[in-house]
């Protein structure tokens, strides 16, 4: 296994310490947990927005903790849900008295452990609402989910909900805009290579030198179709077709697009994908309002990408454009 | 070759178009060139700061074009210098009447072609100064250089010089602070894997499954030592020891550190390296003023990292902390 790693059992602990060492002005780690919260948590008088899930998707989620996005995030082990105890500690640390919105990616472990934690904090009198992100249009069910998986579109939920909370909205309103993003976003991904988990040290699936996997998730779980290697334009067309078939936007609709790298993909290739994606938006009569290109929701060292399209109206544009200041995303 | 690519001959052209499509509010591409300049270039009444070099190091350099950093950047083909004509077009497009600082990474092609371009624009009456970045402490000469190579420390030169120019300083002052960064920065890199160029489609050097290459450059050129695979802490110690031996900072010195991914390295691993790096700063009695972790100066899809240490004083801290707004780096 070729990784920058010490004992694989320590990798999450060491990553989190390395992250707080890089961003002490943004992040603090709650003692004896894998929970990262804002350095100034809890923010009194504002709704808190929190998330979490397995590690291996960096900068998701701790990279989005800061002004205008998340108040905190729990990190599980690689591709494993945080425990209910960790989610409970997260919610407790972030609640500033106005309630907490939990943004949950739709994986069974995350949903179950978040729900258990919520029962506990509600007994303590904390107001909690949840949204479940299921933007992956590739599969209806998968190894880790009933229903669609939550993937890169989650970042837009963090952004919109965090902006609404920072503007002083109440918990119902913050939940409403989070759900509005979920109702208007779709994503599909593909892999050129499998990821390699630090524990296992070998690829989670085998792909031939001339094969790619379409419709992959973010945990090395199988995709929907294994095909022969295609060029970047053909891959972009296939991903975008599936996303637009699901989202079914009207002509003239404004959209935010994301070309997301899976962790092992150079930016050069992501920009090549973005070129074709923007031409496709034109061909479909869609208006690109903003185009993001980078590593937002990764799968360890997997080479590949996902394409996200989110239909935006004036309200979402204002929220997605509002100031945010986090380690991984800054808008101003 | 597993890449998101169409015809390899088109990859730079398509990348640049994908980049302007993602960042039309920051970047424009000069027609019939591989030159990217600010959307509002030239900025009248300010010194311009420009750079350029071979492609394959994204987000370097075009990702740093914007307020407070570069006014423009020329992109060569993969690992090849831009032509003198492209450098000339770059300088001409960015000169706002107060002169142009060219930040050149120390590679023979870049130095030669920049010098030819400068002779041409000086005949047109443009004031030009240059600095040559040579922060790589690993080798004295290499395949592509006489003297040390310019690598990740270049980003700090862009940042400081761009901030000084934005503050209204004259060309001599902008050149002075750029040189001050160069005099106070050192970098060393290592590879877990070779990069694969789109043209060749195979690794530029062979590494066994249990081998790593220390002291690599950013063009797949050989390193200084091939060793057996070490753990992340040992690798970080070796890189840092070489950088500090060269830089020789006094105890108590404040530093900015960078853990830079080479393009195929997940952020998880970079944070693991940063954890040990910050402990080493402590052990050496150095004060980390700021710690950057991410992909700043890459080598296509190479897995590996580099460690940069820059000694900072009040002047450099102010410049490195000044507002910048570019596709790849935003400070505020």
Explain this structure:
- Two copies of one chain form a homodimer.
- By secondary structure, chain A is α/β, with parallel strands linked by helices.
- Chain A folds into two domains: 10-184, Rossmann fold, CATH 3.40.50.10440; 185-311, Dihydroxyacetone kinase, domain 2 (Hypothetical Protein Tm841, Chain: A,domain 3, 2-Layer Sandwich).
- The first copy, chain A, is 32% helix and 23% strand.
- Chain A is built from eight helices and 14 strands.
- Chain A has helices at 11-22, 84-94, 108-123, 154-166, 171-183, 232-247, 267-283, 314-321, and strands at 27-29, 35-38, 48-55, 72-78, 100-105, 128-133, 185-191, 211-214, 225-228, 254-261, 287-294, 304-311, 324-325, 330-331.
- A six-stranded mixed sheet of chain A has the order 1-2-4-3-5-6, with helices on both faces.
- In chain A, a hairpin with a 4-residue loop joins strand 13 (324-325) and strand 14 (330-331).
- In chain A, helix 4 (154-166) packs antiparallel against helix 5.
- Chain A is globular, with a radius of gyration of 19 Å.
- The model of chain A has no long low-confidence stretch (mean pLDDT 96).
- At the A-B interface, helix 1, helix 6, helix 7 and strand 11 of A face helix 1, helix 6, helix 7 and strand 11 of B.
* Low-pLDDT residue spans of chain A: none
Fill in the CATH topology of the largest domain in chain A. Rossmann fold
Quaternary status: homodimer
Instruction: Classify the helix fraction of chain A into a percent range.
Output: 25-40%
Shape of chain A: globular
């Amino acid at each position: 296994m070729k990784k920058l790693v010490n004992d694989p059992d320590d990798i999450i602990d060491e990553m989190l310490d390395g992250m707080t060492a890089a961003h002490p002005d943004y992040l603090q780690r709650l003692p004896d947990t894998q929970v990262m919260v804002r350095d100034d948590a809890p923010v009194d008088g504002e709704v808190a927005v929190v998330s979490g899930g397995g590690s291996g998707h960096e900068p998701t989620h701790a990279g989005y903790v800061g002004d205008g996005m998340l108040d905190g995030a729990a990190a599980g082990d690689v591709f494993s849900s945080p425990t209910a105890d960790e989610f409970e500690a997260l919610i407790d640390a972030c609640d500033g008295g106005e309630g907490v919105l939990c943004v949950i990616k739709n994986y069974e472990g995350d949903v179950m452990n978040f729900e258990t934690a919520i029962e506990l904090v509600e007994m303590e009198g904390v107001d909690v609402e949840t949204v479940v992100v299921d933007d992956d249009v590739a599969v209806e069910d998968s190894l880790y989910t009933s229903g669609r998986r939550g993937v890169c579109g989650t970042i837009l939920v963090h952004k919109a909900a965090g902006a609404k909370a920072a503007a002083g909205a109440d918990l119902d309103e913050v939940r409403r805009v989070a759900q509005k993003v979920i109702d208007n976003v779709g994503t599909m991904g593909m892999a050129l290579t499998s990821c390699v988990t630090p524990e296992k040290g070998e690829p989670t699936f085998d792909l031939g030198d001339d094969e790619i996997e379409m419709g992959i998730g973010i945990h090395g779980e199988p995709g929907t179709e294994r095909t022969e290697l295609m060029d970047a334009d053909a891959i972009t067309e296939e991903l975008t077709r599936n996303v637009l078939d699901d989202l079914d936007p009207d002509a003239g609709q404004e959209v935010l697009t994301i070309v997301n790298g899976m962790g092992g993909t150079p930016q050069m290739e992501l920009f090549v994908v973005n070129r074709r994606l923007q031409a496709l938006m034109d061909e479909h009569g869609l208006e690109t309002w903003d185009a993001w290109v980078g590593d937002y929701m990764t799968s360890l060292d997997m080479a590949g990408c996902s394409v996200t399209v989110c239909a935006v109206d004036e309200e979402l544009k204002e929220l997605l454009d509002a100031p945010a200041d986090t380690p991984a995303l800054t808008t101003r």
